[in-house]
Predict the structure.
Amino acid sequence: MPWLEEDYRRSAAAAPKPRFLASTAIEIVHEVPPATAFRHVLFDFDGTLSLIREGWPEIMVGMMTEEMLATGTGETPEAVAALCREFVAELTGKQTIYQMIRLAEEIRRRGGRPREPVWYKEKYHGRLMERIRDRREALRSGASRPEDHLVPGALCLLAACRDRGLSMYLASGTDRKYVAEEADLLGLTPYFGDRVYGALDDYAKFSKQMVIEQILRENRVEGSSLLGFGDGYVEIMNIKAAGGVAVAVASDEFGRSGRPDPWKRDRLIGCGADIVAADYREAEALLGYLFRSE
């Protein structure tokens, strides 16, 4: 049967009195038992590790607004843009194609004749590539460092996970070809090797749930051995459904303030996140808690 990513659903409430690790901003929503035998760790990409695509929502919303206004709808540009922002946010965390499927539905509702969703996805990617071309070129030429386009502390966290002997996986709703290329530009390929997964044009052939099930099946391990990091609800829900521990990365992608993004924090706690961190500047304390023996 085809694999489809679930819609967001609020299934958990925040603890009435959130606890923070001593002298840190790391929020413990659900306590992780000591001596948990983590062996595999799954990372989302954009917003969880990479900041190359920071600002993508405004590109997507702008393109969608133009396409919907072209139907001749009597709505104002402001009303259409507000609607687009709403459903783009609602679907953030799923593969990009799902947002384009919704765009096609909205065009049809207004009497338009939509193109195939993959056409809209390619148009959006073209505009996004124009927006981030300078970032990619600066990385390629050495004019900027990977750290300039990574969630703060990401390289230290990845190195620490590798040093602990964890098998590391990268799974993204962004197309795999872009994920692999940008991971290489950021110097992340040595951590993941060929364990890099991303969206395909045939979106029913990829999901983060499929990646998780493959990890558990091929390694013959229980879900409790899985640790996951993500800033989108899909990976948090999938990790929890498998029995793993989920760290919500409520990253402030634009400001890199070290404070959690309130919208991300609430959304990710609402789908079961165990821990919330704004970034990885306190990675040593976070891993110390996760791998404590008692």
Summary: The first strand starts at residue 19 and ends at 20. The CA atoms of residues 72 and 89 lie 25 Å apart.
